[in-house]
Each structure stands twice: as C-alpha cells, then as structure tokens.
Write a structure and sequence with these properties.
The complex is a heterodimer of chains A (746) and B (417). Chain A is α+β, with helices and mostly antiparallel strands. Chain A folds into three domains: 180 residues, Penicillin-binding protein 2a (Domain 2); 277 residues, DD-peptidase/beta-lactamase superfamily (Beta-lactamase, 3-Layer(aba) Sandwich), CATH 3.40.710; 129 residues, 2-Layer Sandwich (Trypsin Inhibitor V, Chain A). Chain A contains 23 helices and 31 strands. In chain A, α3 packs antiparallel against α5 and α9 runs antiparallel to α20. Chain B has 15 helices and two strands. In chain B, strands 1-2 form a two-stranded antiparallel sheet. The chains are: A alpha+beta (746), B mainly alpha (417).
Chain lengths: 746, 417
C-alpha cells in the first residue's frame, strides 16, 4: 500500500514536471516567438487590416494659354465601390444591385455579378460618375443604412478627377491628353506630368472588423497638394487663326496627310501657336476623328481592325510639327544664302547665271530649274527671289560641303530643338560619303530632312539677327494658389550668323514676299518677309507611281523689326495646286492678316495700298435715312438704300466689320427689305479694277488680300463661292496673287 | 464536525498507515482540533484547514480571468447584443454559483464521492445522449454540445471530464493492486473511453475526445498502469483516427484542421475564411509585443477576432498585456497547478490523491492545449481556457472541482499556510 501511495506521489511529480516543463515550457517559447521575434511583422499585418487608408486624389493642375484662358482643367468625379462582404443574404445583394444598376444606368446582372464576390471589400462598379449620380448614390446609401445597419459601408464613393478640355480639338497636339488614371499621355500633359499631378493626400482611420470606426481617437490626415498649373506661351487667338486657316486650306487643296502651322516669337522662342491638323477631340482621344478612316475601320473586324485602329490612333496623336521630318525644299535656300553671305562665299553683288538647268558635276545628269527657259543672269537677291536652283547649286559649290554641313548643324537641323514636348524628331543630313550631287541638291533643300519646328527656329534666327533660340511652350508654372513657381526664360543657344548677314537676308526675303516667288504670302500694310517651298516626298508617297508633295511657306513680320515667324506646311495636297506658292502662301497670308493686327504689329501701308485699306463700318441703325447717309459718306463709304421707309432698321455690313474704304454700306429701311439678296459674282482671274467693277455691279463689298498694288496681278480665289445668294453689301474677300511656279521639284 | 470521516475500509486504512509513515506526523491530530488550535484562523471558520495559498491562487486566476474576459468581450457583446456587459454579467453570475458550490464542496467530504463516481459517469453519458436527442438549435449541421435548461445551456462534455476523473480515481483506488493487469487496468478504461468517444464523436466534439483521452491517460498513469499500455493506446488512437478518415465522416474536423499552421500563408479565399480566427489570434498576440497595447487597448477584439470571449480570450490578453502579462498569468496558472498537485499528492488516501491530482492535471492540460491552439501549434478545435473563457458549464464545473481539491487540502499532509 505504501508503495502504491509513494508511486502515486512519484507519478504525480512526474506529471507535474511534464505539464510545467513540456506544456508550459512550449507555450512560453511559442509566445516569445510570436510576440518578440515575429511581433513586429504580425502587428504590422494587424495594423494593415485595422487602418483604412484612403487616398485623397490631388487635383491635376490646369493648362492655360498666355492670357489665362483655360485649355485643360480637372473637375471632381467619383468612383463607386461595392463591398459585397457586408451582405448578409442574397436578398440584400439583389436589392442593392438593382438600385445601383438603375442609378448608374448599368445592367443589373453585371452589378449582381460584382456583388456576388462575397469576400471582397472592393469591387469597382463605375468610375467617374458626376455629381448628379453621386447625389443619388448618397441618398440611396442613407436610405440603405437606415434599413440595414450592416450595409452602411457596402457602397463607398472615392473622389477622383476627370480632365476636361473645353475646346475639344483645340491645340490638341500641344496640350495632349490624360489616361484613365489621370496620367499625362501626350503633349504638355505628358511632358509636365510631374508638375501637373500634384501629391495625393491620405486619410488614415482605424476601423473595426466590419469597417466602421473604432472608438479610438485615431485619425491621421495628410492633405493632398493639388498639381501645378501651366501657363503656355500659346495665344488662344493666334492658335485659333492657325487652326481656322489650316482647316480651310486642307479642304481647299484636298490635303490628305495633314498640315502644320507654327508661329513663334522670333526673339524669345515662345511658341504662340502650333496647329496640327487633322486634329482630334482631346475629350475623346480614342475616337478616330477622321470620318473616312473611321468608316473604313468599321468595315474591318478582329485583329485587322485592332491593328488598323492602333495605326490610326498613332497617326492621329502624332504631333507633325515636331515629329515629322520632311525635305524643306526651297525654304531651305534662306539657310544656304545665309551661309554663303556669312562665309563670304558670295556677296550681294555676286551674279549667277541660269540657263534652265545646271550640271553640278562633270558627268552627272543636268538638274533642271523650275523655269526651264532659264532665269538668265541674276544678282544674289534675284536668285533667292526667283528661287533659282542653278544659282543655288553654284552657291553651294562656292560654300563647299564641309561648310554646308557646319551650317546645317549650327542652324540646329541635325539636333532636337529641345522644345518642351515629347516625341521630337530630328532632321537628317546626307549619309557619308558625301557626293557632289548631295551638295547640289542640298543647297536647295532636297535630300536633307528637317522637322517643321527646326525649320521655323532656323528662320527665326535669320529674323532675329542671327541667334538660334530654343522654342518653348510653357511660360510659367503656377502653384495651386496661382503664384508663379517657375518661369521659363528664353534660351539663346548660339549666334549662327552675324546681324549684318541676317539683316541682308531679311531684306531679300521681304523683297521676295512683295515681288518675288513668295508674293502670295504678302499682306497689305505689313512688312512680310517670306520664302516658299515645295518638295517631293521621295520614297514616301502614298503609292509608288504617284508623286506626293509637301507645300510650305515660312516667313516673318515685320521685316524691319521681326516679331513673329510663321511656318505653314501642307503634307500632300492632292488638288490641282500643290506648290508652296499656290497652297501654303495664301494660307500664310490669311493667317498673317489676322494675327498681325491682333498682335499689334504696326501697319506700314504704301500709298497704293492705302486705297485698299479696310475701314470699320459705323453704326447707322435707328438713324433717319438722311443722317445715316451723311454719316456713311463721312466714314468714307458709299451708302445704298433698300426699302421705302425713313429709318434705318438694318445695315450690311454690320457695325464694326471691315470693308474697304469707299465700299458700299447698304441701309435697309423696312424689315422686309432685309430679305433682299444679291448673287455673288465669280471674281477669280480678274484684275483689281475688274473686281471693283464687278462688285459694284452686284452690289457687294470686296476686301482685297495679297499684294494688290503690284502690276498685272490677278485674283485667284474668293471667300464666298460664286452664285451664292447673300445680302447686298456683304464683304467678299478676294485673294490676289500670282500663279507663278516657284520651285523645282526633284 | 469533520472528525467522523465516513471512510470506506480501503481508504481509511490506507490513510492511517500513510500518516504514520510520514516523518512529521503532525497531521495525526484530528483536523478540526488542529484548526481550532490555530487561533489566527478562527475568525475565518469557513477556511478551517484549507490551503489558503491555493485558495488565493484560485481567486487570483478567477478575478484576472473575469476582468480579461470582460475586456475581450465587450465590443463583441455590444455589437451582438447591444449590451457591453452581456458576457461579463452572466459570467459573474456563473462565478457566483461556482464559488458557492466550491465552498460547499470544500466542506463536503470527498470520500462520499466514491459512491458518486459511477453515478456521475452515468449522468454524464445520459446528458451527452440527451444533447444528441434534444434539438438545441435551428441549424441541423451545427455541433450539438449544449443541453438547454431554460436560462442556460449545460455543456455535457464539461460534466464528462469531471466524471471521468472521478470514475478512474475511484477505480484506481479500489483496484490499485490490479491496475497492472489488462482486465482491471486497460479493459474498463477502453470501454469507458469507447462509449464516451462515440458520444462525443456524434456531437461532434473532437477536441472533447482529445481532452477526455488525455484525462483517462493521466488517471491510468497515476494509478500505476505500466508504460507499455500507453504505447498500445497510442497505436489505438492512430488506428481510430485512420478509421474516422476512412469512413469519411471527418468533414467537420477536417474543416477545422484545414489550414492548420497556414493562417498566415493562406492561398485561397476559402482558406482565408477558414483560418480567419486563428490568423486574427496571431495578429493579436503579435501586436502585444513585450509590454502589450495596454489594458483595454486591444484592437483585434473589435470584430476582427471572432468570439473573443471564448477559446481565444488569451489572444486578447496577449495583445493587451504583452508577453510580460501573459507570462505572469501563465505563472499564476502554473502555480495553481503546482500547488494543487503538491497538496493532492499528499492526500491522506489513494482516492484523494488520484482525484485531486487528476483534477489539477486537467486544468494544466487545458491551459496548455488552449494556448497551443490560439498560437496555431494545434488545430483550432475548441478547447477553452480555464477561468478565462466565457461559459457557465465550464466555470461552474471548474469551481466545483476546486471545491473538491480544497476539501482534499483540509486533510492532506502538508504545511498549511
């Protein structure tokens, strides 16, 4: 018995030791491991699930034009999140799906499918809802939380921002667009993304297992810092005119591969306007803007469609003004001429003979001039005004290939201009070894490629006295309160030619624009300097047996103190006219005639021109016929009366519109008389006098465009088509210019 | 009033011989008289002969358990019942009942339990049978563990644990000479275990099977069953588990075992759900670190850790009090078990020793198993933490058992403090 009792004692002790040493011992080890060694990690995981970290989106900065007009801005939108984990049963799930679908205009099945992910706390139902839908959702959430306490957090709205472009396709290539997460994808939006984005803030709150707040005072808030806004160098008005005239030019000349117009401040490099047509709607960048292409795309299916779509989008988004390279053609003669003068390889007194063609190197084929009859003996200035290829081949030879290459580089053609846009291309020089033919054709702008922005920058250097400036688009960076944070200052890269040379060339270019091959780009009252260019897209045409051309015009104004330079460039005009002088020059003139007055460039009319200067029509409404007649005569107009009343009830042209001095003002005295119309006559191919007579006959006004003071100049276009019916006194702009062919096309 | 022990012939003789064999036969003086001579305890007649240190340890564990259970449970109670005090008020009530029973049993001579040993087992089995028959809830697939008697449910397995200890303490004290034989040492144990196991399996309550198995093993070990039988039992358990697996009716247990040890490395959504409770327990324990988040400062009790008042209450303790606090509580538990076993192994007779040590071992085992479960070293099987976890049956049974141990302490041959 005692043995047994002692045995129990012994075994009890063993048991106690086993429990304490093995059992409690392992627990202590385990707790030590979990709380001390793994504690940090576990507690982090616990914190992760307890804290709800809400990101507060920062508002993306706006993009403004130089005068503060908004080109791109962001507005609040909301993302609808569903947390199906809170649903207790299928009835709730169905109910919420149904309500959400009807508020958001979605299919109920789709929402129900999202709601069926029963473990999930984050199902995105719809993105970017606007405030009307948000208000409905909030009302529903209120109602829901009263019905089912558990469903208070089943629907969450996250604030987000949507990008709006108020002018749709306006300056699309420059501004660029953003992706679904608000990140810049092209243009300024991409280039300045880090400035525009801002810093998102966070709100960290501690939540219990069901997503509602815990009774601990714990909330940490980091404010969002809204993105910086950008003030562009772009002037909305200038940009508007560029786009307007380019669009018209594309229609008039059946341009199929797009067009570019770039206007820069020659002294600073500020880009006042950069139009790339055909444009696209920044609010719908993924929609094919070209209707024909869109129709063609509709016919395709499957992979072919996707591929074509990608291709079309890439084309649509491409900023031709900085990405495309082209043979500059005769515009490049300005550069060659500058180099020759600067290097004393020729002077203003040098003469060049043209027999209609020129053999640049013994044994080579003769290269023709556009004037196959030959220009005869020309001075340096005449050679540029005639755009004579043989003369320039001779100049090139006088300059030499090495110098030609040096100037090609120093004018910035072989390097990016550094403009603050993504995807800038770079012009290409001849591949080595260089041949004598290379130099010959290079001297008149064939065989070397440039980008439009490189070209306009190089011409700006001639305009501003020889300095190569860096073009730029962003003038200022503003913080979210509108204070200036950064200012982009003009950068002069280098002096490429002397002031003297630059002034000489500018003078010749002005002459060229008034009486040379570039005269179609002339605008009365402004001292325009310009040069046309036409080049064949060798090896780059739409079809192998078709010749495609690029028509361009580059010039600046005013010639005596250049302020702005403008390049107009049409890629593949397919109408009858395709020369720079026929296609690009009138558009250049049209744009200059609008932006020069807008920019306040002083007018300097010649005496002949003064005759044709437009005058502003006064307001003659509500006057008696007599008073109105007298005032109109005082203002320098010829009054015409329609109707039998005594008071003026309407007038054409409207008060404030421009008509030439001595033009007609039609005064209507009865309401029904305003319905009288007249037919627009065909005034193309007429001299100035003939146009005046015809206009008088048909009782319409004429505004003259082009260098009308020149002898023998004829009209080539009119702003309102013949045979259209218009009110008497309506102003029809008639474009004068000459139809001379200016360029050689290789 | 405690002099006339109604000893049966075995234990009375045992006790007398034993007392005489002790080197310090101080305890030969009748306890009542001895107690009376200790004047300092006179004012506390209720404590006459009691081991006060043991009583204090019980009080300590119980009070800390109640406080921590309250801290862990109030957010869930508020959420579930709209009343933060739902669990604690009921638990205090159970504790009150338990304390009364404990003191009552501390006066109740444990030798009377000889008679109750087989009866209690029969009652436990009957309860377990009733649990299976009487529908307790709406969900037919939910485990049937409680017997609803009006205001509160009896968890039959809690009664069973006690019944098994009592039964084998009685059996061992009767057949101590034959315990090494298969007929007395093994067969009855296997029979009792089989019936108990089947009833628990039917509920199903697998952790109950495990704890009952361990209890019977402890009792047989104390009774002197040779070691070879334990090896045999191990083989039997392995076989039984295999059999259950073969029958394919292991789904519930499997679902609990599924994801065991993978709470932090869940790969599927389903596993993420299954291991939710264990994972959040680990998060809570880890969050505590060395010093804890501070009393009442647990975050995990805010609906992350499901039912924090039950088996996983100690995870919240770890979170709030840190490793230091957890070790203090473990030390208290350890001391309770140590003190209890030290008292009971010196009980006057074999029955007292087997019964007392068995009861204390049960507490130790449950503490160890519970904490191994909440720390993901054992599958999440539903073993409660003595004195801490919410539950009337458990708490009342525990306090009743402590009453028996206190009663044993009155006559045990130890230095009372």
């Amino acid at each position: 018995m005692e043995n047994v009792l002692a045995g129990i004692k012994k075994r009890s002790t063993i048991l106690l030791i086993l429990i304490l040493a093995l059992g409690f011992g392992s627990i202590v080890c385990r707790l030590f491991y979990l709380q001390i060694i793994q504690g940090e990690e576990l507690s982090q995981k616990a914190v992760d699930q307890q804290l709800s970290d809400t990101t507060v989106s920062a508002k993306r900065g706006s993009i403004l034009d130089r005068n503060g007009n908004t080109l791109a801005s962001s507005a609040s939108v909301w993302k609808v999140i569903l947390a199906p984990a809170y649903f207790e049963n299928d009835k709730q799930r169905k109910y919420v799906s149904q309500e959400l679908a009807s508020i958001l205009g979605l299919r109920e099945e789709d929402v129900y499918e999202l709601a069926s992910n029963s473990n999930s706390y984050y199902q995105t139902v719809k993105r970017r809802i606007e405030s009307d839908e948000r208000d409905k959702i909030l009302a529903f959430v209120d109602k829901l939380s009263q019905q089912y306490e558990r469903l208070t957090n089943v629907i969450v709205l996250e604030e987000d921002f949507k990008r709006y472009y108020p002018y749709n396709d306006f300056a699309a290539a420059v501004i660029g667009f953003t992706g679904s997460d608000g990140q810049g994808l092209s243009g300024i939006e991409f280039q300045y993304d880090s400035y525009l984005t801002g810093t998102p803030g966070r709100i960290i709150t501690e939540n219990n297992g069901w997503g509602t707040t815990m009774p601990f005072e714990y909330q940490q808030k980091e404010d969002a810092h809204d993105g910086n806004s950008l003030v562009l160098t772009i002037d909305e008005t200038v940009q508007h005119f560029l786009e307007k005239y380019l669009k018209q030019g594309i229609i008039d000349y059946k341009v199929v591969e797009g067009a570019v117009a770039v206007c820069v401040n020659v002294k600073t490099g500020e880009v006042l306007g950069m139009a790339v047509e055909n444009s696209f709607d920044l609010n719908n960048p993924y929609e094919i803007a070209d209707e024909n292409a869109a129709k063609e795309l509709e016919k395709l299916t499957g992979q072919a469609k996707d591929e074509r779509m990608t291709e079309l989008l890439a084309k649509q988004w491409r900023n031709k003004a900085i990405s495309d390279t082209y043979y500059p053609g005769s515009v490049f003669k300005v550069i060659t001429a500058s180099a020759v003068l600067e290097e004393n390889a020729g002077s203003l007194s040098s003469t060049y003979n043209c027999s209609g063609s020129y053999i640049p190197y013994e044994g080579e084929k003769a290269i023709n001039c556009h004037n196959t009859a030959g220009h005869g003996t020309q001075t340096f200035a005449e050679a540029l005004c005639n755009s004579c290829n043989p003369a320039f081949m001779q100049m090139g030879q006088a300059l030499g290939m090495q110098k030609y290459w040096e100037y090609f580089q120093s004018f910035g053609f072989n390097s990016r201009t550094g403009i603050d846009l993504p995807g800038e291309g770079v012009g290409l020089f001849f591949a080595e070894p260089w041949g004598p033919v290379d130099l010959a054709i290079g001297s008149f702008g064939q065989g070397v490629s440039v980008t439009p922005i490189e070209m306009v920058t190089a011409v700006s250097a001639v305009a501003n006295g020889g300095n190569l400036v860096k073009p730029y688009l962003v003038k200022q960076i503003l913080d979210d309160k509108g204070n200036v944070v950064e200012t982009n200052e003009p950068v002069i890269k280098r002096q490429v030619i002397s002031k003297d040379t630059a002034e000489k060339i500018a003078e010749i270019m002005e002459k060229n624009a008034t009486e040379g091959t570039a005269k179609n780009g002339y605008v009365a009252g402004y001292r325009i300097a310009g040069k046309t260019g036409t080049s064949e897209k060798i090896g780059n045409s739409r079809k192998p047996n078709v010749k495609d051309y690029i028509a361009s015009y580059c010039g600046f104004a005013p010639a005596d103190d250049p302020q702005i330079a403008l390049l107009v460039y049409f890629d593949t005009p397919t109408g009858e006219a395709y020369y720079g002088s026929q296609v690009a020059a009138p558009v250049f003139a049209g744009i200059m005639s609008e932006i020069c007055p807008y920019l306040g460039i002083e007018t300097q009319y010649t005496e002949e021109e003064l005759e044709y200067v437009d005058t502003v029509a006064g307001n003659y409404l509500s006057m008696t016929l007599e008073e109105a007649g007298q005032k109109a005569i005082q203002d320098g107009f010829e009054p015409f009366v329609c109707g039998e009343g005594n008071n003026v009830v309407a007038q054409v042209p409207q008060a404030g519109s421009k008509i030439p001095r001595g033009g007609r003002v039609v005064l209507f005295t009865t309401q029904n008389s305003t319905s009288e119309t007249t037919i627009v006559p065909d005034m193309v191919g007429m001299s100035v006098e003939q146009v005046n007579e015809t206009a008088a006959e048909y009782n319409i006004n004429v505004s003259f465009s082009g260098s009308v003071e020149q002898e023998g100049i004829l009209s080539y276009a009119q702003s309102i088509n013949p045979r259209e019916r218009v009110a008497p006194g309506t102003v029809v702009t008639v474009y004068f210019g000459n139809n001379d062919i200016d360029d050689t096309v290789m | 009033m405690y002099t006339n022990y109604d000893l049966d012939k075995f234990s009375s003789t045992d006790a007398k011989t034993n007392v005489k064999a002790e080197k310090k036969p101080v305890k030969s003086i009748p306890l009542s008289r001895q107690a009376r001579t200790k004047k300092k305890f006179r004012f506390l007649s209720i404590g006459e002969g009691l081991d006060f240190v043991f009583l204090l340890s019980i009080a300590g564990v119980l009070i800390i358990g109640l406080i921590m259970m309250f801290s862990a449970s109030y957010p869930y109670a508020y959420h579930r019942y709209g009343n933060s005090y739902y669990f604690i008020s009921r638990q205090i009530g159970f504790a009150g009942i338990g304390i009364v029973i404990m003191f009552a049993l501390s006066y109740f001579d444990y030798h009377h339990l000889h008679f109750w040993a087989p009866v209690s087992l029969a009652v436990a089995w009957l309860l377990m049978l009733l649990v299976l028959i009487i529908p307790s809830g709406s969900d037919p697939d939910a485990p049937k563990r409680w017997l609803n008697i009006g205001f509160f449910g009896i968890q039959a397995s809690e009664v069973c644990k006690f019944a098994l200890i009592l039964f084998f303490a009685n059996w061992g004290s009767i057949y101590y000479k034959k315990m090494h034989t298969i007929k007395y040492g093994v067969i009855p144990a296997l029979g009792v275990l089989a019936v108990t196991g089947i009833l628990l399996y039917a509920e199903p309550h697998y952790s109950g099977i495990v704890i009952c198995l361990l209890i019977v093993a402890v009792m047989l070990f104390l009774s002197g069953l040779p070691f070879k039988y334990f090896i045999a039992a191990g083989v039997f358990v392995a076989a039984a588990v295999s059999l259950m697996a073969v029958t394919g009716k292991l789904t519930y247990a499997m679902s609990r075992l599924d994801g065991w040890g993978q709470a932090l490395e869940y790969t599927t959504n389903e596993m993420w759900q299954t291991t939710w409770q264990t994972r959040n327990s680990l998060y809570a324990i880890g969050s505590g670190g060395l010093l804890g988040m501070g009393f009442g400062q647990s975050r995990q009790k805010y609906l992350y850790l499901p039912e924090p008042q039950n088996d996983f209450v100690f995870a919240i303790v770890c979170e709030e009090l840190g490793l230091i606090g957890a070790l203090v509580i473990l030390a208290l538990f350890g001391f309770l078990v140590f003190r209890g076993i030290r008292i009971c192994k010196e009980a006057k007779d074999m029955f007292g020793r087997l019964l007392g040590v068995g009861l204390m071992a049960q507490i130790g085992l449950q503490v160890v198993l519970n904490i191994l479960v909440i720390t993901d070293w054992l599958p999440n099987t539903g073993i409660s933490l003595p004195f801490f976890s919410y539950g009337g049956s458990s708490l009342i049974m525990l306090l009743a058992q402590m009453g028996i141990v206190l009663n044993i302490s009155r006559t045990a041959n130890i230095q009372k403090e």
